[in-house]
């Protein structure tokens, strides 16, 4: 995005990729946050010498019951057991999709659970291992089948990747949450009182507010922290994020196209019905079209039938074409302990004739025609997938990530001109804090398939931040609270700044992989990839190119070159 001056001198309620906003009030908070980072943000098993203070403890609501929301609840549950958070943590689940499609989760998302001895956390690790398949040998190919590079995951200092059905990932987390619910630490809400429409803006509490449902009724509890994990089209993000516009260019991500169906700041006449403030907020919270479509399926071929002994990606030469497949074993649903083999695959392409076809059988036929001259067993894998089981999704992403909202009252004032009723009691505080986790924080181009990983990492990072800030001395200025609300906000801002490091690595790696492995037709980078880089890769020895691929893979996960 292009550089521009902030539209307001006030602190921002949203955050572009690399802009700096939000104060760091003391070096102690920063140092403590970095300590959390080195500990994988684990909140521990629940044992603590923390003495519960007098005053109201922090209440937490999680809006969204998908992978990010369930992970957040599991990482925060120990803080309830320790007396740092007033339980139970309420999860508002309006209904999440439990799809059979295979998904990948990197070890950076699972390690915080592994490093905890809490029973629910160990249940997650055991269940994921039982349902999933560790990806080992991986390779990169050209459409004619020639190998560009090969590597092995999980060995030495390389990260590991687990593949399993999305429904098994969600059920593993949900089972663990139910274990915490049985202890009164978490409350999973479903049904009519789970469809959150926003935050109750008429609250008279200075540091908290209730949420309101689709029927207009407010929740019984008022929350000091609201965690938005409600996905790419997050209602919380659209309502309360992005109200103060501030942008800054980031090297390595300049290829991002403009936002989809949103007015741009370059054309002030783009929408005569929207004010400049509304246009900025709409751009900040909206999605952009990445100009290709993703098709995914679980092929019924076995490993023996497909002849596969390695996972691979095949890089296209135009039209954003790419193919990838990962062999996966999934547990039989009859509880017999048996396993069924599937080949999890995806295809990317930019072709309106394919995406506009409504008949699943004809659409699969057109898809196969587009890849008819690509090597085996691509055709066999796609043909062995029932047409009605092939998912088609347009690749969408957010252009900006979202900073925590640390002054809710300021946002309401900007939108409505004041927080009603505007009393001295209300204006003494900033209202509830809002933090975004998972796709509501930033939905990223799916080319590297790290969406679930980012969400689970963010949940663990939040727990680490709260584990630090809630242990700091309570403020004498707010004797009714058992925690310092300003320290809480400093911790959330520090956590956000550190998560940006991880995010930027992924964004840069995404742009590079798209240019090299999924080029658009007629682009300069596509020509460079096809005519220069790939021939060089073909003649380069493995001891040269394999370390380069491994380094890029680690960089995309935000891991240091020499992982400790």
Labels describing this entry:
564 residues, seven-stranded mixed beta sheet, five-stranded parallel beta sheet, 17 helices, 17 strands, 36% helix, disordered N terminus
How far do the termini sit from each other? 34 Å
- Provide the helix percentage: 25-40%
Task: Report the sheet-strand fraction.
Answer: 15-25%
How can the largest sheet be summarized? 7 strands, mixed
- Class derived from helix and strand content: alpha/beta
Estimated radius of gyration: 24 Å
Strand segment count: 17
| Shape type | globular
Q: In what order do the strands lie side by side in the largest sheet?
A: 6-5-13-14-15-12-16
Helix count from the secondary structure assignment: 17
Low-pLDDT residue spans: 1-47, 254-274
Mean pLDDT: 82
């Amino acid at each position: 995005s292009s550089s521009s001056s902030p539209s307001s001198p006030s602190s921002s309620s949203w955050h572009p990729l690399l802009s700096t906003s939000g104060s760091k009030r003391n070096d102690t908070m920063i140092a403590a946050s970095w300590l959390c980072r080195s500990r994988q943000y684990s909140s521990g098993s629940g044992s603590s010498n923390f003495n519960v203070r007098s005053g109201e403890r922090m209440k937490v609501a999680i809006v969204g019951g998908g992978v990010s929301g369930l992970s957040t609840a599991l990482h925060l549950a120990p803080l309830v057991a320790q007396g740092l958070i007033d339980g139970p943590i309420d999860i508002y689940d309006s209904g999440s999709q439990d799809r059979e499609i295979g998904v990948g989760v990197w070890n950076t998302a699972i390690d915080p659970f592994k490093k905890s001895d809490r029973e629910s956390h160990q249940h997650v690790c055991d269940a994921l291992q039982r349902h999933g398949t560790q990806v080992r040998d991986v390779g990169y190919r050209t459409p004619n089948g020639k190998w560009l590079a090969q590597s092995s995951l999980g060995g030495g200092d390389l990260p590991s990747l687990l593949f399993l059905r999305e429904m098994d990932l969600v059920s593993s987390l949900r089972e663990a949450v139910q274990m915490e619910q049985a202890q009164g630490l978490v409350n999973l809400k479903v049904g009519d009182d789970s469809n959150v429409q926003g935050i109750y803006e008429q609250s008279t509490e200075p540091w908290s507010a209730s949420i309101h449902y689709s029927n207009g009724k407010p929740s019984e509890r008022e929350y000091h922290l609201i965690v938005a994990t409600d996905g790419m089209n997050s209602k919380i993000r659209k309502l309360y994020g992005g109200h103060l516009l501030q942008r800054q260019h980031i090297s390595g991500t300049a290829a991002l196209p403009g936002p989809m169906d949103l007015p741009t700041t370059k054309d002030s006449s783009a929408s005569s019905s929207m004010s400049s403030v509304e246009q900025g907020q709409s751009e900040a919270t909206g999605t952009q079209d990445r100009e290709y479509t993703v098709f995914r399926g679980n092929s019924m071929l076995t490993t023996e039938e497909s002849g596969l002994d390695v996972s691979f990606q095949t890089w296209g030469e135009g039209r954003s074409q790419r193919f990838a497949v990962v062999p996966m074993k999934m547990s039989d649903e009859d509880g017999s302990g048996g396993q069924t083999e599937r080949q999890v695959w995806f295809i990317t392409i930019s072709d309106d004739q394919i995406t506009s076809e409504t008949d699943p059988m004809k659409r699969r036929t057109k898809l196969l025609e587009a890849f008819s001259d690509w090597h085996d067993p691509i055709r066999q894998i796609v043909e062995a997938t029932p047409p009605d089981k092939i998912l088609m999704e347009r690749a969408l992403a957010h252009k900006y990530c979202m900073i925590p909202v640390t002054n809710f009252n300021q946002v309401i004032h900007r939108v409505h001109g004041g927080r009603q009723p505007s009393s001295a009691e209300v204006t003494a505080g900033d209202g509830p804090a809002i933090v975004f986790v998972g796709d509501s924080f930033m939905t990223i181009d799916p080319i590297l398939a790290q969406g679930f990983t980012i969400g689970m990492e963010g949940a663990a990072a939040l727990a680490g931040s709260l584990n630090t800030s809630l242990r700091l001395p309570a403020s004498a200025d707010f004797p009714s609270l058992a925690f310092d609300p300003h320290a809480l906000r400093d911790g959330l801002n520090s956590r956000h700044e550190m998560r940006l490091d991880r995010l930027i690595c992924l964004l840069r790696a995404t742009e590079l992989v798209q240019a090299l492995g999924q080029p658009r037709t007629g682009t300069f980078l596509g020509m460079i990839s096809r005519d220069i880089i790939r021939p060089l890769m073909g003649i380069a020895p493995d001891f040269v190119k394999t370390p380069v691929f491994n380094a890029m893979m680690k960089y995309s996960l935000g891991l240091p070159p020499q992982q400790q």
